[in-house]
Design a protein that fits this description.
The chain is mostly beta strands. Among the domains are: 1-40; 237-385, no CATH class. The chain has four helices and 22 strands. Strands 2-1-3-4-5-6-7-8-9-10-11-12 form a twelve-stranded antiparallel sheet. Strands 13-14-15-16-17-18-19-20-21-22 form a ten-stranded antiparallel sheet, with no helix packed on it. The longest helix has 38 residues, at 2-39.
Length: 385
């Protein structure tokens, strides 16, 4: 009997030891898997274009074989990345629940751009921010209904801030401010002491006037500082078609709001107007006064026919077409002579087409500011774009 009990005890100890080793092995594997999951963020890869749009989801190797590839890293929930937290305007409330994404654009396998996108829990964009190594860049803030409420442009030593005010989703006024730059400790870069810190400067306000049918009639610029008056001239427009947009006006429809020229604005702009007060050219300069390029507006009667940007190594052109009632029905975007985007109005909706290497790659249909359908196309060579 003693021998039997002794054997049973030994068998139990042996099995317990084996079970312990097995559990320890499983726990170790799970632990290292957990560490790996914490160290590496989940990501998706897309075929893209020069604008950094996610055109078609694919594998990283396939995406990098294309002229442009986009990697999206998902950086978790409700935790603001340290890389951008210093650039965020503390006066704007951070959503209670949000998701952060890092978008990296590659051209011929070389990384060329990065931007962060922070989204509300529902998926709409709250913040888009991109900052270069030298500290220059931009940040855009949106409300829960997807309206752009603030734009920050970062320069050496200051921030140019534009706040947008709406009435029932219609843009009524912009306020442009010059804000002292903040360093990583959140202290004014001008001086650490509150007494000698450089104050915010309200440069000017743009007030938008509309006709009874909703057409933009004029934009009135009101100066709030003598410094601003030295930089720009009064901007005033004759009656224009519904949906007209220029440097100071952003339409609420995503399809008809082109950001094609949004990154060609520099520190100083000299405006040239005709005898009717219309802007016919903008000469853009850097902070040292060197000419970077010129934006030329071509008018047909009271309507804008085209906008052309001529830079050192970059030419762009936006062309507009109108119907008999003066409504804009077609917009075409060209980069270095190659068509990249076309938008046409069809009754109660807009059709947006994106082109890759001059060939149609995506067609989207928008209605009441919302995308209702999307269709992808393949290159004529037969391989997926």
């Amino acid at each position: 009997m003693k021998t039997s009990k002794h054997l049973i005890r030994m068998f139990t100890l042996v099995n317990f030891s084996a079970l312990t080793k097995r559990c320890f092995g499983i726990i170790s594997i799970l632990f290292f898997l957990f560490l790996g999951a914490k160290a590496a963020y989940s990501e998706d890869w897309y075929v893209s274009n020069a604008a950094g749009m996610a055109l078609e989801k694919t594998f990283s190797r396939a995406a990098l074989r294309e002229p442009y590839a986009l990697k999206i890293e998902y950086r978790g929930q409700n935790s603001m990345p340290l890389e951008i937290s210093v650039f965020i305007d503390s006066s704007i409330a951070v959503p209670e629940s949000f998701n952060a994404e890092l978008h990296t654009l590659y051209e011929n396998t070389e990384e060329i751009k990065q931007r962060w996108i922070v989204r509300y829990a529902e998926g709409n964009t709250w913040l888009v921010i991109s900052v270069k190594e030298n500290g220059s860049g931009f940040a855009e803030y949106y409300d829960a209904s997807n309206l752009l409420i603030q734009e920050d442009t970062f320069f050496d030593g200051s921030v140019i801030r534009v706040r947008h005010h709406y009435d029932d989703r219609i843009l009524m006024q912009n306020e442009t401010w010059q804000i002292p730059r903040k360093n990583s400790e959140g202290i004014s870069a001008a001086d650490e002491s509150a007494e000698s810190a450089e104050p915010d400067t309200h440069l000017w306000s743009d007030v938008y006037h509309y006709t009874r049918n909703g057409s933009l009639r004029s934009i009135e610029r009101l100066f709030h500082s003598a410094e601003a008056e030295d930089k720009v001239s009064l901007v005033h427009f004759v009656p224009l078609n519904p949906g007209y947009e220029d440097t100071f006006f952003r339409n609420v429809s995503p399809a008809l709001s082109s950001d094609f020229m949004s990154d060609v604005i520099y520190v100083r702009i000299e405006y040239v107007t005709d005898n009717r007060g219309r802007i016919i050219s903008e000469i853009h300069k850097d902070d040292e006064g060197n000419i970077i390029g010129e934006l030329v507006n071509t008018w047909s009667g009271d309507r804008l026919a085209s906008i052309a940007w001529n830079g050192e190594n970059d030419t762009r052109r936006i062309e507009y077409e109108y119907d008999g009632q003066g409504n804009r029905i077609i917009e075409r975007n060209y980069r270095n002579g190659i068509l990249e985007r076309l938008v046409r109005a069809e009754e109660d909706r807009e059709v947006e087409e994106l082109y890759l290497q001059g060939q149609l790659s995506l067609r989207a249909v928008w209605k009441d500011g919302q995308k209702i359908s999307e269709e992808y196309f393949r290159l004529r060579s037969g391989r997926s774009f």
